[in-house]
């Protein structure tokens, strides 16, 4: 046993040395530049000690110095600086990162602006509200691409999703020396989504900023139904007032669930088939979200084969594994202790209810803070500034069809002048090529906001030299898999011009297969591998240029580098659906390259037909929303990232040989899901017939109707166009009513996510604010509807809603659906 422990220690030290050694010079250089007589040396030491590898590669020499100088400036100016404990400062003010957003110099750019915002604030409480108002003016909630944008990009776009809004607010608060941190629920158990928010340190306690403004904020109710609330801390923490989920060398994840809801201690024991405790068994805890089991927490068993965690009282899926041994269990909400016996066990074909905590009505006492009309007026002015209209755009040499270019400029928001200026200065013979490049980026609209003149110049140079070779491919292949600079969720960067010169020698005269293998072998030999176990939760994935510069990367970063080189050499390529290797395009087919072995593998064509068990009819299921295809990878359940067309009787996809299983589910009013699991094995082209749907005997009264809706007899309703409706209109035919508070993120999210484009009836939307936002969303989704704007009191008089948003379906005067709160997915199954 001692021999094995020594071997493990040597392997760990070797892995750590691989990570640390290439960056020794960068660490020394950054420490030198961070040194300043006005800046305590330990500040720089603390940051660089836990700095993620992406920052060691890409951080400018002066970056740390300017960031630390901004902290010094704020500390001298705010009256509460000396009240912040040292430990709180090092974890929640000093770090220049909040999460995985790209590196940016927000603090040094905005310190003077934000200090001016709070100049009249006599205390931290007042300053928090002033900073929150400033952030409200400069951004709104809107769903965006999965990778995080920086706070500067959020300001340029004028909007972001919850993580990006939280990052901006946290950095703004830290800039004025207010401790703030990022807290999140990885996945909600009761609906298809997740969420992140901000906590501030006030009077010695961490408080959710939304609750400071509104004691009954929607997040307060939602978190009482979740499985886990967590947060990430810069650096390794071994002692904390809150339970620690995981403590790593560079960061720590704490468990904040007990701060938000009534929890239980889940105790897990893992044994082998002889009932001997298993040490260091890997534990994963999942909830049901987007038709799959999504991980919310993980850990390992201790020396007694035991693992404990504080979680919410909702159903969970639990897996344990070690080596090739695996076990799973459905943990009911009242289960406190589970024993898992490892063996060669897969999850069998099964169907079951996965229960959630019913909606909770919150009635906290306290003053509700509402931003003044002046704040929302200032927000509108700012949004007009960063959202160009056609009259703002002066195109010096219009395209034959300039509508796509105008859409590109509109999508670049506060960056549109940079792109337009470069376009107008570009030679007329090259402008069409520039638009083609921008079209390849248009799908990932965040990247348009990141572009600068140098980015566009290098991309255009590369494209001009290679456009003849690119033109042999259809745009559906060329734009996303050759021209686009983005491969996955990595930091944005342009590298093709550099790589096309640097790696021209890797083009093989023997053809595309040989070229691909030469590129992959080069990356394997030239780039050291950092195990995923050493990754940081701060900073995103390195882009191809950063990985090449640092000569080190995680496996996925090495795949992204290989793809970046191949695209630069005009070989269409992408990550495979497991994100553990690459695919390249040859003669009309995608070929999978097996990692490490460099052996190519063709896909099998798979057709899946889902039949409703109740009546035998074919079901048109949508990937992610209604079902997913899954497999067990590294002893963890993983949902495959497949591109599957919607609304088809037959689901068609390509899979490599192996064992898989489908997960399909239906949610009721409370978010409780009826789940069906079906296993299948792929050895060749296959046709699968799978039972789906919910059996009639499982559908219970009250699953979709919270209560009956009664309209006032003689109410007159005037829409935003001035047309008058009698309340009797809502009793005729089939009608869908959405009651929204568009100052509330949950209402905006529901309107963005809900699938009502094909509703067979009339749609009425009632809102207390933000008519323009509602109109923009319904226009983008091509929803035909009637919109009404009313005061909160008028909405309550008519609908008597308990919470926003509320969704009501009425057919011939009878309520057929009424749900309240954040649950945009119930209508998808209705």
Automatic annotation (TrEMBL):
Superkingdom of origin: Bacteria
Matching InterPro entries: Papain-like_cys_pep_sf, Transglutaminase-like
A Pfam family reported for this protein in Swiss-Prot or TrEMBL: Transglut_core
Chain ranges passing through the membrane: none
Organism: candidate division TA06 bacterium
Every Transglutaminase-like domain range: 154-213
SMART domains: TGc (SM00460)
Protein name listed in UniProt: Transglutaminase-like domain-containing protein
